[in-house]
């Protein structure tokens, strides 16, 4: 059975304390690789580490510079552990340069009082919507099936809509069960808010990217449906930077993750 392209992209070889990965051309962006897959690769280096306990609770990736080499060298390191969680740091290098760093928290989740204060946005079933044509877009977009309810950057703006807000269903292409690595990547698969707001493609890049995971591995295994609903918006564009926040919902109404990032742009 052939590996899914996503699994090939985040595959690691070598020793657990210094695993090696590579940039997969299927996930190239305008400049360098798609950040979501880079983040998923860093997460994978901890998930595969023999010292890891619990499941991902949060992750922040700082993108320090462009990945100009094909090969990536990772150094995952547990900094501290207690009864509730583990704290990890990962560095990624291309050649002699450090190109990304990540801090991760893995949690030992226990049964507790639960409440979800956000409400899943109302949306038509993904089967009622048309896929976005991605043939003329960077390769990474072609690895996802995206079906917009609102905020499609390739369509005319909707009257009275919030300029930077979007709502769309998304699934790996071909379909793949959701796990922590693919959920991490999907959290970065929102088109940049500047594109949504202006309907123009301008030079930009993510500087820092955070994911908060709100599910256990068992809950992900029980999803059954590879489709998730993504909802995102910006707060402010200022001084060549803008923020981006979003939620990712399972088709069963469960809030799977929330995410934020800061992007640099030239406009």
Protein architecture, described:
The chain is 13% helix and 36% strand. The protein has a single domain, classed as Acyl-CoA thioesterase, double hotdog domain (Porin, Beta Barrel). The chain is globular, with a radius of gyration of 18 Å. With 267 residues, it is mostly beta strands. Strand 3 (71-81) and strand 4 (85-94) form a beta hairpin. It has helices spanning 5-9, 35-47, 180-186, 193-198, 217-221, and strands at 20-22, 55-63, 71-81, 85-94, 97-107, 144-150, 166-172, 204-213, 228-233, 237-238, 241-250, 255-265. The relative contact order is 0.15.
Q: Give the count of helical stretches.
A: 5
Q: List low-confidence stretches.
A: none
Largest sheet: 12 strands, antiparallel
SSE order, one letter for each helix or strand: HEHEEEEEEHHEHEEEE
Task: Give the second-level CATH assignment, the architecture.
Answer: Beta Barrel
Number of strands: 12
Task: Supply the CATH class.
Answer: Mainly Beta
The separation of the N and C termini measures: 46 Å
Total separate domains: 1
CATH homologous superfamily label: Acyl-CoA thioesterase, double hotdog domain
**What shape does the CA trace take?**
globular
Helix content: 10-25%
Radius of gyration: 18 Å
Strand content: 35-45%
Mean of pLDDT: 95
> What is the CATH topology assignment?
Porin
**Helix vs. strand class:** mainly beta
List keywords for this structure.
mainly beta, Porin, twelve-stranded antiparallel β-sheet, 5 helices, 12 strands
